[in-house]
Amino acid sequence: MKRLRCSSTFPAQVAVCLAGLVVAGCQSRPKLVDKLGESIGDQGRGLDDHDKRELAPFIVVASVEDNAIVAKHLEAARYPGVYLDLHAVRCRRENSLNGGLTGRELRFFYFADGEYPDSKPNPSDKRLFQAEPGSRYLFFLKYERGVLRSIGDVGNYSVLVTTGVHPEGWAKETDVGTLISEILLSPGNGANPGLMVKKLHEYRWRADYWGSRPLTVRLLRHLTSLPGPLRGVACGELVASYMGQDDCLQTIAADPNESPELRQGALQEMKAREPTRLRFFDSLKDPASMAYLNWGGDSLRRMREEFETVLFSTDPVLRERACTALKRYFPWDPEPGCSGAAGEGPSR
Description:
The protein contains ten helices and eight strands. It has helices at residues 12-23, 52-55, 176-185, 193-210, 213-223, 230-241, 247-253, 260-283, 299-310, 316-329; strands at residues 39-40, 45-46, 58-75, 83-98, 105-113, 136-144, 147-150, 158-160. The longest helix has 24 residues, at 260-283.
């Protein structure tokens, strides 16, 4: 780098000198190494094989103000011939979900695919990091060499947040997974319903993974109570992914304020799902035979969650059978929600 001699004469010479520094490209950048293809642990699993919450000391929701390339055509550390760009993102922090970052302004770095003609194709990640100015994201960050950087590079390490602004301290929960679920599935100030409709399926499965299925059901059922296009899509997610949630179809079909198209669609779906609903209703007599309870690995936890989701139903017989099953299989841990009103769901 060319070294500029700056006169101490003030002020004109100083201004000229500072301008020269900018033109000469003397803005410092951290000596970071990209994480493309990096593995973690004795088994050599990649970053995508780990829960991002375990890898990120800092999890924030932030609105991107600027995304600038600060270094170009850098060869990837683990893939010779693959060239990357180093980006610096400047954003406005809105929520700290983990790690306690408090500054309103936030700056972090990540490596992106440079798309150079002389570069080999990116061999691992196809869904790239997103940080578009003007958009809001969930970022997973860590400190490295004295600066904040994304936990991973050239991959899907950010989540677009379409639900608007949620004020700091808006949620009283402390569990990170619960906080993420509530932000992704709760409309805030300036929410974009059109984009939420497109992202709702992704948000639903992220909430299942990072939070819990009963929590996701509660949040989706709230969306079915709101006017607009989200209502039908949220009901569709409930019906397709959780047992005992068909009552949202009945509510939409009976609502005179809803569009004829949505009401007719709800009626048709009710008829199509009637055999499935009856089989589920009958299976609650002997829940141990319910094969779907083995999904997700931890069968006991999954079994309890499935029964708890049924408690949100407005069908009193379904609720009664779910409570009977909970008392039968979990007598050491009573469910207080079984004494609640219809549709309240689990109280924990």
